[in-house]
Design goal:
Blueprint lengths: L1 H29 L2 E7 L1 H16 L3 E7 L5 H8 L4 E5 L1 H4 L3 H6 E9 L3 E3 L14 E5 L2 H13 L4 E2 L12 E3 L5 E5 L13 E4 L1 H6 L4 H4 L2 E2 L7 E7 L6 H10 L2 H10 L5 E2 L2
Parallel strand pairs: 1-2, 1-3, 6-9, 6-10
Antiparallel strand pairs: 3-12, 4-12, 4-13, 5-10, 5-11, 7-8
Helix pairs in contact: 2-9
């Protein structure tokens, strides 16, 4: 009798030993994980809202933290307040040495074609001599603005300046254009005060502008400025980010982009 009881005890212990890791694994899978991602509202925040339920099915609670500028999302990521951000392209990330050193661009989602807009003129040819053009004051987008003006024959830049061009790199300015340098979020607000302004696609959309219909000039879909996901270095292999990539680079998101933004946002996957 004692041997029988002892045998049952040993068998029960063995069963527990075999099944316990599986139970623990199921418990781990069932635990909800939080993923905090910083974004600009349009289109980044809108696109993430579309995948919240998809991630919830994978046990990930996507928390979307909205910013209205281009500085705070990287500051919050560096401080650990965010797990990732989604608002910027590689040239912008690499415009700051700390960002370049401590942050990592993982994969792209979309391009917001950059445009030149005016509340006063309907065509590029209407822009007069001595006109004032408002452009970005951050290094990467300032170069992008000037390259757009060059591509449309308004100025000519030193070929060596590339994407880091500034007004000092202008070597030909036949219309004697003047430049007003402002933060990206302010550019739509000054359209009434200047002759034209170069505006990032997200801020154009927020201001109710249609990039295809309202711009005097616009980038092509081949733009190098693809907005994508950025994390702190060392976190590139976080499985939560792999799950986010799967749902964000999906046919669902591509179809939404194509049907909702009238060319103001172009899928890059």
């Amino acid at each position: 009798m004692k041997k029988t009881i002892f045998g049952l005890f040993v068998a029960a212990a063995l069963i527990f030993t075999v099944t316990h890791p599986a139970e623990a694994q199921r418990g781990q899978r069932g635990r909800t994980q939080t993923l905090r991602v910083g974004v600009n509202p349009v289109p980044h925040g809108e696109l993430l809202e579309l995948v919240k339920e998809d991630l919830a099915k994978e046990g990930i609670d996507l928390q979307i933290v909205t910013f209205t500028d281009y500085i705070q999302p990287n500051s919050a990521l560096l401080s650990g307040d965010l797990d990732a951000n989604y608002f910027q392209h590689v040239p912008y990330l690499e415009s700051n040495e700390q960002w370049k050193r401590d942050l990592s661009y993982l994969w792209g989602v979309h391009v917001e074609p950059y445009g030149l807009y005016s509340a006063k003129y309907k065509k590029l040819s209407d822009i007069p001599n001595g006109a004032t053009i408002a452009i970005n004051n951050d290094p990467s987008n300032q170069g992008r603005a000037l390259l757009l003006l060059q591509a449309n024959g308004l100025i000519r830049l030193n070929p060596a300046s590339g994407i880091r061009a500034t007004p000092r790199d202008i070597i030909s300015n036949p219309r004697n254009l003047k430049f007003r340098e402002l933060e990206a979020a302010q550019l739509p607000r000054v359209l009434q005060d200047v002759d034209a302004a170069t505006i990032n696609g997200n801020y154009a959309l927020e201001a109710g502008l249609n990039p295809l219909k309202d711009s005097l000039a616009i980038e092509g879909a081949e733009s190098l400025y693809v907005n994508g996901l950025v994390v702190r270095r060392g976190n590139e292999n976080d499985p939560r980010l792999a799950a986010l990539k799967k749902v964000l680079q999906s046919r669902k998101i591509r179809n939404y982009i194509n049907s909702h933004y009238n060319g103001g946002v172009v899928a890059a996957f």
